[in-house]
Design goal:
Layout: H1 2-8, H2 27-37, H3 45-64, H4 70-73
GO molecular function, one term: ligase activity
Protein name: RN213 ligase
Organism: Phaetusa simplex (large-billed tern)
Length: 80
């Protein structure tokens, strides 16, 4: 949710990193973001769950990768 919210607001996501147990927004805002970005018109709960699970895994792996660390790559992979 935090990545999608910042993406919609035009923030640079290269420097954002999720902090465990941090809470932003309401459950309704969270659901609205997922519905906007999941790519399916009128998704089922299962489809929303799969979308959020996949997005979470990808973002966690990205944050853990040294190649996605802006301090390591500096400006060589801008926008990657």
């Amino acid at each position: 949710f935090q990545y999608l919210k910042r993406y919609d607001q035009g923030y640079n996501l290269d420097t954002f990193c999720y902090e465990a147990h941090s809470v932003e927004g309401s459950p309704a805002e969270c659901l609205q973001q997922f519905l906007l970005h999941c790519g399916i018109t009128d998704p089922s709960w299962s489809e929303l769950r799969n979308f959020t699970w996949f997005l979470n895994v990808q973002l966690r792996d990205c944050e853990a990768s040294v190649f996605c660390n802006p301090d390591f790559v500096q400006d060589t992979l801008q926008g990657f």
